[in-house]
């Protein structure tokens, strides 16, 4: 199996049509069909079902498409960043959830890019498990993780802008009229919580919430869609502040009391050999931080 074959395969997956894919790839349709047949022969099974309406992925095809995207992304990243020229060029791959704590990293990148304009940044948004999976596979250079999270397995920088926990609720709800909310306020109300947070015992102990008795009506991995549930009155989203802009909207963020904050960490693999752009970004990150050696 070759990377070029995977590129051909992904083009067909994207276009759902071999003729259109061949046109985009600028090769003949018979040549593309032969490459796909070789791939299927090597994997000992069909990757597509050919139908009058176009191609449909088989179960094996879906699996290969997911893994092929990772492999092609990693291959491109290696080619771009393995540069021996004196000019710094390449790409930075950073993944994380929704938080303004990313701003110090962005500001450092902006300063770095002013001197190294050939370096670009790729930001991937996802939940904690998705970020760790891509970081461990080498697809990402850095991951952004939020407490509660054990960073000991990684090199890390502690960012100096902690986030505050609270709820996102409607302004016209009684909770929206309060300055703060307590665990007792939330005990019998419908809650929408992040998939990563649900069931976390450390968070429960710090807030006084009991996961076995709270009324959870939904979960989310990124907050924007959860905010739509809140707008429609489905429930109140347990979340971090400054993720959804509530200015001039029917929503409001109300902090928990006692106050509960969460630190954010920029992490990278201990065994990773960082690219030149990644090493340079760390050199530019001169804000107050807890730093490990790298």
Write the layout of secondary structure elements.
Layout: H1 3-15, H2 18-25, H3 29-43, E1 48-51, E2 54-57, H4 59-81, E3 90-96, H5 103-115, E4 119-125, H6 128-136, E5 142-146, E6 154-158, E7 163-170, H7 183-186, E8 190-194, H8 201-207, E9 215-220, H9 223-231, E10 236-240, E11 251-255, E12 261-262, E13 264-269, H10 276-284
Parallel strand pairs: 3-4, 3-5, 8-9, 8-10
Antiparallel strand pairs: 1-2, 5-13, 6-13, 7-10, 7-11, 7-12
Provide key terms for this protein.
294 residues, alpha/beta, Arc Repressor Mutant, subunit A, D-Maltodextrin-Binding Protein, domain 2, 3 domains, six-stranded mixed β-sheet, 10 helices, disordered C terminus
Beta-strand portion reads 15-25%
Helix content bin: 25-40%
Domain module count: 3
**CATH architecture group name of the largest domain:** 3-Layer(aba) Sandwich
Q: What name is given to the CATH topology of the largest domain?
A: D-Maltodextrin-Binding Protein, domain 2
Look at the helices and sheets and give the structural class.
Answer: alpha/beta
Q: What is the CA-atom radius of gyration, in angstroms? A: 23 Å
Mean pLDDT: 85
Largest sheet: 6 strands, mixed
Distance separating the two termini: 35 Å
CATH class of the largest domain: Alpha Beta
Please state the oligomeric state of the protein chains shown. Answer: single chain
- Give the overall silhouette: globular
Number of helices: 10
Low-pLDDT sequence parts: 287-294
Compressed to H and E, one letter per element, the order equals: HHHEEHEHEHEEEHEHEHEEEEH
